[in-house]
Design brief:
Layout: E1 8-12, H1 17-27, E2 31-36, E3 50-51, E4 54-55, H2 56-62, E5 66-69, H3 75-87, E6 90-93, H4 99-102, H5 107-113, E7 118-123, H6 138-144, H7 164-187, E8 191-196, H8 197-203, H9 208-215, E9 232-237, E10 240-245, H10 249-259, H11 273-278, H12 280-291, H13 296-305, E11 310-312, H14 316-320, H15 323-326, E12 329-334, E13 337-342, E14 358-359, H16 366-372
């Protein structure tokens, strides 16, 4: 038995945040019915490299789901979605605020159709009546929330290299849905779950919020060095780069033993964490002068010997060749072709079911889904 055995989810999402949320639910055992535009499908299907007319990014996010083509604006489409809502446990959507209300599928209508359903709403700025209902993407929210001004080394705004706000919001939404399902088990009533990319950005901002209101301090760029401890930075080696985290007294002592410079612990510039942070440029120079004389393998061995955390700076392709990466990968299938995709990041020991591998084409499950609610394919499409 899977953790979400018997849970049926209507997936009205597109692009990344919503599909990532429903992918997590799918991998935990829920049945996901992905509603897609007739003939076109999710807009993500056309973005990036493709295999058999399906984008690989879309394949990663829609693995294991069922696809139903539906025009929500048509009379028949509305009849179908209402029937599905009656039978569903969860509905997830990430349209711009107001779109579901225009379709007469807002929370008031949804809960009148099924009082036990959980409705989850994802937006850029929140669903509050704040007049900010424009479409949002990860990069535009990174720009507006200051994340482009805290990333990189120079003064130019720098986007983080992946859509981390989308993925974080997807996870936040999945957590909210699981909490609402647990509450429903207690009171037998549905609930409304709301998340936003703005809220996710704020939740990832470390101490920036209270520090601004207490001291008017700005959360600015810091390169690769840690904001609160030193030495903690990326250093050059004879054959690449290594990132070392040795900010605490214990780890700094271990690093000095590895460097054979134990005397620095008594130096008044470096003898406590606060002083090391103040003098991080000079201590970084000392560490870099040591690392650049050695190979990554030598440094890794001696740092491990002295319990100093480190990471070899690798390209993504180098990482994917490692044993640990391969232990977290599974097969997906587009048509008759296998592809390699990430497994669910959550492992539950009792979840013995095989991984969901099939990536559906647009409308692949039309007949199956419609038959269950009394429709026949020939008189609908």
């Amino acid at each position: 038995m899977t953790p979400l055995e018997g849970i049926k989810v209507i997936d009205l999402t597109r692009f990344v945040a919503g599909p990532h949320c429903t992918l997590v639910l799918s991998d935990l055992g829920a049945e996901i019915i992905k509603i897609e535009k007739c003939g076109k499908g999710d807009d993500l299907r056309i973005i990036g490299p493709k295999l058999l007319h399906s984008s690989l990014w879309s394949a990663v996010l829609n693995r294991g789901k069922k696809s139903l083509e539906l025009d929500l604006k048509s009379k028949e489409g509305r009849n179908v979605i209402i029937e599905l809502i009656k039978q569903a446990d969860v509905l997830v959507e990430n349209f711009r605020p107001g779109v579901m209300e225009k379709l007469k599928l807002g929370w008031k209508e949804i809960k009148n159709i099924n009082k036990k359903i959980i409705m989850a709403r994802i937006s850029g700025y929140g669903n509050e009546d704040n007049g900010n209902a424009r479409q949002a993407f990860d990069a535009t929210i990174q720009a507006e929330t200051g994340f482009m001004q805290i990333s990189g080394h120079d003064k130019k705004p720098t986007m983080i290299g992946t859509v981390f706000l989308d993925y974080t919001t997807g996870l936040n939404t999945a957590i909210g849905i699981l909490a609402a399902l647990n509450k429903r088990n207690l009171n037998n009533e549905g609930d409304l779950v709301e998340t936003s990319l703005i809220s996710s950005a704020l939740s990832l901002s470390m101490d920036a919020v209270p520090n601004y209101f207490l001291r008017k301090a700005n959360f600015g760029k810091n390169g690769n060095s840690d904001r609160f401890s030193s030495p903690s930075n990326t250093y050059k080696t004879k054959n690449g780069f290594i990132h070392i985290m040795a900010g605490s007294d214990e780890r700094f002592a271990g690093l000095l033993k590895a460097m054979k410079k134990e005397e620095l612990f008594k130096n008044k510039l470096y003898n406590n964490p606060k002083k090391r942070l103040k003098n991080q440029f000079s201590i970084d120079r000392i560490v870099n002068n040591w690392t650049k004389k050695h190979t990554i393998k030598f440094l890794g061995n001696i740092l491990s010997e002295h319990s100093v955390p480190y990471g070899e700076v690798k390209s993504f392709s180098q990482f994917l060749k490692t044993k640990i990466a391969n232990s977290k990968l599974i097969k997906g299938r587009i048509g008759h072709k296998d592809i390699i995709v990430p497994e669910c990041a959550i492992r539950i020991k009792s979840n013995k079911r095989p991984h969901k591998s099939l990536i559906p084409s647009v409308g692949a499950n039309n007949k199956e889904i419609l038959a269950k609610i009394g429709y026949k394919k020939k008189n609908f499409f």
